[in-house]
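Issue: ligand-bound run for fe (ii) ion - logging full I/O for the record.

Environment: standard queue, default settings, no custom constraints.

Inputs:
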Amino acid sequence: MIPLNSTNINKPLKEIEKRIDSYPAMPAMCQHLIKSCEDPDVNFKKLVDEIRYDPGITANILKMANSAYYGSSRRIESLQTAMVRLGLKQISEIVIAHSVADRLVKKLQGYDLRPEELLKHSVWVAIAAEDLANVLHIKPPAMLFTAGLLHDLGKIILDDYILDQREALLKATGNNGEDKISFDIVEHQILGINHSEVGAQLLENWNFPEELVIAVRYHHAPTDPDIEYDPSAAMVHIADMLAYSVGIGIGVDGLQYVSNPEVIERLHLKPIILEGVASRTLEKMEELKSLLVG
Ligand SMILES: [Fe+2]
Ligand SMILES: [Fe+2]
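Outputs:
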């Protein structure tokens, strides 16, 4: 946490906190599926029966199971077969992705993101983070894709306040040189909270797993002394910086963040690795996005 001083009194903080607490929760099925994914003794048959009663989720699971994105070769008509093909982890990712897609699709005036731009950025980061783990031969942490998808969720709440304070925020980040101050730090200084903290607070309110909360809270500060090294936060951070470097969802802040040199060194990241991640992600992204909003 960055200490506040008398020059950055944050009047809107109380209002922001109220908005966080009143923001609509994720559907109960999302939370149920996340819990089921963590349960090694989950009753798969019972889960199929529960999902069957939700026509929207059933349709989405069938659509995904039959998509080229998941390597479909023959048509699947039954929910149970679709769920077996996808597996619990992917099912919960699909359900979460569908639940947040309509929230992420909106235009964010403060962050200067056109409609669908935040969704595109979020899906891109989710795919890239998993691809990065694979290419580095790191077993992807269970919630990595979802962490990528939700990493900037807090921007939805902060957008109005960013619009009000945009000039002050940009002025405080300084120029593009070495002395640039990361946008999330400036957000915290001026508003009393930044979009990573808002997103983490939302996920905490919804009782999402701690792994997810930490990855979202520290996606701009993966080596913060408050946490031990967290692979999800580190990989979401790199995927996020890569998204901005290839122009996915830059908005007002995308060029005002700094890549963490400790993470780059720790993961032995070379430009060729990142180029490969970026090109594979671009390929997969359009298809997954069209499944989500189509
Ligand atoms: Fe962010
Ligand atoms: Fe981001």
